[in-house]
Amino acid sequence: MKPPKARPKAVVKRPAVMTGAVIPTLGWPPDEDRVEAIFERLSGVMPEPKTELNFTSPYTLVVAVALSAQATDVSVNKATDRLFRVADTPEKMLALGEAGLVPYIASIGLYRGKARNVIALSRILLEQHGGEVPLNRAELQALPGVGRKTASVVLNELGIEPAIAVDTHVFRVSHRLGLANAATPDKVEAQLFRVVPEQWLPKAHHWLILHGRYTCTARRPKCSACLISDLCPSRAGLQALGEAA
User: Fold this and answer.
1) How far apart are the first and last CA of the chain?
2) pLDDT (tens digit, 9 = 90+) per residue, 90-135?
3) CB neighbours of 11 closer than 8 A, spacing ≥ 6?
4) Residue 99 is inside which H or E element, if any?
5) Rounded to an integer, what distance in angstroms lies between the CA atom of residue 164 and that of residue 172?
6) Would the CA dihedral through 192, 204, 235, 40 be positive or negative?
7) Do 185 and 15 touch, CB atoms closer than 8 A?
8) Quick one: how far is CA 87 from the chain centroid?
9) What predicted TM-score, i.e. pTM, was given to this entire model?
10) Residues assigned a catalytic role
């Protein structure tokens, strides 16, 4: 009689964005004093954080954010710098048309689908909203190409709602700092709303993005230059990653 086969050990998968460093499994919720200290320090160096996307109106903001999905802000700004000179309103965008829009955004990933969405949302704005961008979540998310994350960025940037859009930077930094431990962006967003002090909520989105973009980077985090490294429970693993790079 053959002995029973040993069951394979369960493998705990870390989110893909967390690969590269040994990140401890952190308890949640985090210590309130530590969270307060994190955002107090970030506010000291970035008192008025803003999106790095260029825009001049709610409409150009919606378009820019929709174009930024799976693309860098730098690449979007290069494209919209030319685009918004000729089409910065729904009327002008529809006049440009999908075929006319494509050459302006062809350098951005997924540009064909984005072009369809920008033309479609422009038409809806004219037909259903008098050419104005609706500044509430339900109607924003009903626009083609505008999901929850895009709506959150728009509402937060315009001061309508203290939203936190969880992109790869926010997801990564939140996990490394122990502000969240959930496996999906929506769940991370819910955790952040529970632990970020109310006074910091309006700007927390930008602080986490900018910190992840310039300091707590994915592959080579700049721990030695990080002003909150002493508050980071992942510091040892991240420093080892930086030394090995």
Assistant:
1) 51
2) 999 999 999 999 999 999 989 999 999 999 999 999 999 999 999 9
3) none
4) helix 90-105
5) 14
6) negative
7) no
8) 25
9) 0.84
10) 149, 167
The C-alpha torsion from 141 through 147 and 153 to 158, rounded to 10°, is -20
* Residue corresponding to tokens 């350098």: 107
Q: Say if residues 139 and 46 touch (Cβ distance below 8 Å).
A: no
State the Cα angle at 197 between 191 and 198, rounded to 5°: 105
Task: Report long-range pairs for 220-223 (Cβ below 8 Å, ≥24 apart).
Answer: 220/245, 221/21, 221/176
CB count within 10 Å of CB 161 equals 15
The pair of structure tokens assigned to 164 is 């936190």
Distance CA 128, CA 121 (A): 10
Helix (H) or strand (E) holding 139: helix 137-141
The crossing angle, in degrees rounded to 10, of helices 168-176 and 201-214 is: 90
